[in-house]
Design goal:
single chain; mainly alpha; Proton glutamate symport protein; globular
């Protein structure tokens, strides 16, 4: 019975109970959605202040601008290389397996597709980058805009650091507030089994297993590709830097299960920041890499986007040339950066990509709507694992990780 007190065991029970409840009592999906959304909102409640106080404490407490610039630049280069690789892998696998061949085109555009199309047309990817600079930081905190909070936090940390000794008392206060916030997070995380139950009960109750029959090949291809990306590509990166992927995943098992249940990597953002800091990674590295990665290092979303474009082309018997597929890569390199770590954002970006491509009928999105929720869990998990690994790798490459602490906490040696 002592195992029932372990959080990840409770989360597993919550997920299983959610699947059973959703399957046998589909009418529960409405209540289950409220439970899941309430849990995610409780997490979002602390995301903005945790990012702000962690970055300010990290940079103003020990860092300098040269180091911040170097870490940020290295992180962006890493993100671009790894997501580009994920994009190419998704395209190659979709071309080889051909999950869209033989799927009957019986779906037509519906109200949801029409709404997504209109939203996609409104997206301006040039404005995405200028949007990083907030016009009203209070509004940014209220909306939980991660990149805007990150930008302001870095500037505030620099301003505080320039105060010299006068800023010490502020830093001490911020450190205390941050510890209080993580205590709040500890309380919230105890409710994660309930949140996982709600998320899975909603998914199964709303969409059911029947939706998997038609698009099972696509779903299976996506998950196999995602696992290969984690255990081959990311594992090779870990091996090069002498980091055990398995030990790191074991250390983050609770967060992985919560992401699975909630279908959102954002649900564990504050928790993973704390865990990686406890594992020996410097605050400023964790504070910079994790929030930035949630917009620029979405490996799972990138695989999903590239695979879905090729899948829809196969459904409509559109033979994309090499040039057209290179165009797909170019478009996705931009549009994939606009997807946040929240459920459904990948689907909106897919609509934007198809709109920009102007080759594949936009009504094809209706084919994916039923199965998208089942793919959302995979996207979120791959995104989460990719960002966690990136943080440890960048911290190690900068000698900003206490390996003695890391081996003791993560590798248990």
């Amino acid at each position: 019975m002592k195992y029932l007190r372990v959080l990840y065991v409770q989360v597993i029970i919550g997920i299983i109970a959610g699947v059973i409840a959703g399957h046998f009592f589909p009418s529960i999906s409405g209540v289950a959605k409220l439970i899941s959304e309430t849990f995610i909102n409780m997490i979002r409640m602390v995301i903005a202040p945790v990012i702000f106080f962690t970055i300010v404490s990290g940079i103003a407490g020990a860092g300098n601008m040269k180091k911040v610039g170097r870490i940020g630049g290295k992180a962006l280069i890493y993100f671009e290389l790894v997501t580009s690789l994920a994009l190419i892998i998704g395209l190659v696998v979709a071309n080889l397996v051909k999950p869209g061949k033989g799927i009957p085109v019986t779906h037509t555009a519906n109200a949801q597709v029409t709404q997504l199309t209109e939203q996609a047309k409104e997206l301006n990817w040039g404005e995405f980058f200028s949007h990083i600079v907030p016009s009203n930081i209070v509004e940014s905190f209220a909306k939980g805009d991660i990149l805007q909070i990150l930008f302001f936090s870095i500037l505030f940390a620099i301003g505080l650091k320039r105060l010299g000794p006068y800023g010490t008392s502020v830093l001490v206060t911020f450190d205390k507030i941050n510890k209080a916030l993580f205590n709040v997070l500890t309380i919230i995380m105890k409710l994660s089994p309930i949140g996982a139950f709600g998320g899975m009960a909603y998914t199964i109750g709303k969409f059911g297993f029947a939706t998997l029959a038609l698009l099972g090949k696509l779903l299976l291809t996506f998950y196999i590709t995602g696992f290969l990306f984690i255990f081959v590509v990311l594992n090779l990166i870990c091996v090069y830097y002498k980091i055990s992927l398995w030990k790191l995943l074991g250390y983050l098992k609770e967060e992985i299960l919560i992401v699975l249940g909630a279908s959102s990597s954002e649900a564990v953002l504050p928790s993973v920041m704390k865990k990686l800091t406890d594992a020996g990674c410097e605050k400023e590295v964790v504070g910079l890499v994790i929030p930035t990665g949630y917009s620029f290092n979405l490996d799972g979303t990138t695989i999903y986007l590239s695979m879905s474009v090729i899948f829809l082309a196969q459904v409509f018997n559109i033979d994309l040339s090499i040039g057209q597929q290179l165009t797909v890569i170019g478009i996705l390199l931009i549009t994939s950066k606009g997807a946040a770590g929240v459920t459904g954002s990948g689907f909106l970006v897919l609509a934007s990509t198809l709109t920009a491509l102007k080759v594949i009928p936009i009504e094809g999105l209706a084919i994916l709507i039923g199965v998208d929720r089942f793919m959302s869990e995979g996207r979120a998990i791959i995104n989460f694992i990719g960002n966690s690994i990136a943080t440890v790798i960048i911290a190690k490459s900068e000698n900003e990780i206490d390996m003695v602490t890391y081996r003791r906490v993560v590798e248990k040696r």
